[in-house]
Amino acid sequence: MPTQYLKDTTVEGHIRTCVYQTQLLHQEFQQPLNVVIIAKTNLRTQARAHVVLFCSDLELAYTLLVDYYGLRFQIEVV
């Protein structure tokens, strides 16, 4: 992802987490989507994992979007 979309970077132990946010279009939706990508990199092995979250509220901050998804998955698991 281009660095212009980078919102936050943290390193805990040997895991680096980068959070990106932008508005994107999808061919099956008529309106833009608020998209957050969480990219985790293991600094020892360079293994990578990505999570893509999205919503139709274009003004929603990435922190709230991540929190809302976290709450949603807690409900679905329980």
3D architecture notes:
The chain is an alpha+beta fold and 78 residues long. The chain is 21% helix and 45% strand. It is built from one helix and four strands. Strands 1-2-3-4 form a four-stranded antiparallel β-sheet, with helices on one face. The longest helix has 16 residues, at 62-77. The mean pLDDT is 92.
| Percent range for β-strand residues | 35-45%
Distance between the termini: 34 Å
Classify the helix fraction into a percent range. Answer: 10-25%
Number of E-type strands: 4
Q: Spans with pLDDT under 50 lasting ≥5 residues?
A: none
Give the strand line-up of the largest sheet.
Answer: 1-2-3-4
Shape: globular
Structural class: alpha+beta
Report the mean per-residue pLDDT as an integer: 92
Largest sheet: 4 strands, antiparallel
* Radius of gyration based on Cα positions: 14 Å
| Tally of contiguous helical segments | 1
- Compressed to H and E, one letter per element, the order equals EEEEH
